[in-house]
Amino acid sequence: MRTLNVYSLLLIITCIILIFTVVPFTIGSSDSVQRVTRSVVESENDVKYGVICDAGSSGTRLFVYTLKPQSDALIDIDTLIHENEPVVKKVTPGLSTFADKPEQVIEYLTPLIRFAEDHIPSDQLSETDLFIFATAGMRLIPEEKKNAIIERIQVGLKRITSLRVLNPNIRVIDGAWEGIYSWIAVNYILGRFSRTNEPKVGMIDMGGASVQIAFEIPKEEGYNGGNVYEINLGSNDLDMDFKYKIYSTTFLGYGANEGLKKYENSLIESKKLADSCSPRGLNKKIGELLMNGTGDWDTCLVQVSSLIGDKNLKTCAKPGCFLHNVLAPSVNLSNVQLYGFSEYWYTTNNFGSGGAYHYKQFTDEVRKYCQKNWSDIQEGFKRNEFPNADFERLETNCFKAAWVSTVLHEGFNVDRTKNLFQSVLKIAGEEMQWALGAMLYHTRSLKFGTGLEEELEILQSNQQISNFFSLCIILIFVLAAVLYRQLQTDSLYKKYQYLRIDSKPDFLNV
């Protein structure tokens, strides 16, 4: 019986150990699961912020964006909204005006920075990246003055803000990257990145001084020339789902205002007094000559066409050629969905042709307008006959219509009748800003749900330890059960032996 009590005690101790080892690890694992689940939920609801400044030639515009993670997709980016208004602020003049006074640039930027800080939670400021990308105006000033402004900003902002200021995020970007950022923004707003097999939209953006173009090069295209950029919007460079090959470049001198200068210079050189690209009866002095508007728009088209390309350079064959001289991918842009921005929108919209582009409808309206007498146009403006046009544009409408169409059709080889071109101001209800594309590209590696992977590793480690202890306890329990069973067998056997030896039947005692 004493032996039986010992083994019974061993069994009880085994059960107690089982309770105090397996149960706590099970509870601990459950807590870990709950904690990680909670972390997953928090990461899905996690919101970070990004601040970017578009430092253009006429002013600097600040945008504040919210950044949220999405599983198996790009970061979800939206303009921060406060009291039903986007958090956007602009200051003037342009950054380039500080070329001779770089010491004043921080004072100029401070209102923008304070505006952003007022709309971002204070505990998020140190984790919020600030980008300042300068464009056309800053490209034109001398290199040493440009560098002085950039260095002042890089050093000075770190002293006045808690936002994260990294030197590479304060710089002048070239026109090609401005085009790439616009391409990213357009396709992101349209949701094209969430549908991998759907063709991406190309874009043409004409300003006053230059025109930019960006579009995706098909995988089968063997173009090895310049102006090609491989970009990856995935969270790491090994992610092939969001990798694209983009053709992007800027053509200086092909903006609407620079085009007008070329045209007027051609009139001065030819000493022609007839200005076919102005409405009838519009007389204006160009240089020393007094020009008379004839409103002959077909003649205007011929004259403008002669201004496309550089006559001193060798021409190249279509379709792999832009503006007569520039080698390009042999992509038929007539079959690419193209969005035209800025001057393309303003000019086509002035003639009631904004949106889907119809060449005949557009040009018919232009011809009617240009054939009007200048005095009638002025009176018509007072009667609101041209609701989409500013008064300042009335003089140049004929020329700009000829310029945008000629650059599109002769410069970029888009067919006049069979094309997928459309002019746009807003996409999905919001104005396209290249700043959105820049923010998406430069925050693609942003980490959300910090510590989640580490918690998962700990959970797995704890589970493995729990499983090991459980196995050990089970083995001990089995061993105890075997020993207990053996004890019972031995006890019965000894009892039986005792009865055999010490007990005698009654008949033997006779």
Give a verbal description of the structure.
The protein has 510 residues and is α+β, with helices and mostly antiparallel strands. The chain has three domains: 2-43 and 457-509; 47-173, ATPase, nucleotide binding domain (Nucleotidyltransferase, domain 5, 2-Layer Sandwich), CATH 3.30.420.40; 251-431, Exopolyphosphatase. Domain 2 (Nucleotidyltransferase, domain 5). The chain has 13 helices and 22 strands. It has helices at 2-44, 105-117, 136-140, 143-160, 175-189, 256-270, 297-305, 343-350, 359-370, 374-382, 397-411, 434-442, 452-502, and strands at residues 48-55, 60-68, 76-79, 81-82, 85-86, 88-91, 129-134, 170-172, 202-206, 210-216, 228-232, 243-252, 274-275, 283-286, 289-293, 321-322, 326-327, 338-342, 355-356, 421-423, 426-427, 430-431. Strands 11-12-10-9-18-20-19 form a seven-stranded mixed β-sheet. Residues 25-44, 451-456 and 498-510 have low confidence and may be disordered. Keywords: ATP-binding, Hydrolase, Membrane, Nucleotide-binding, Transmembrane, Transmembrane helix.
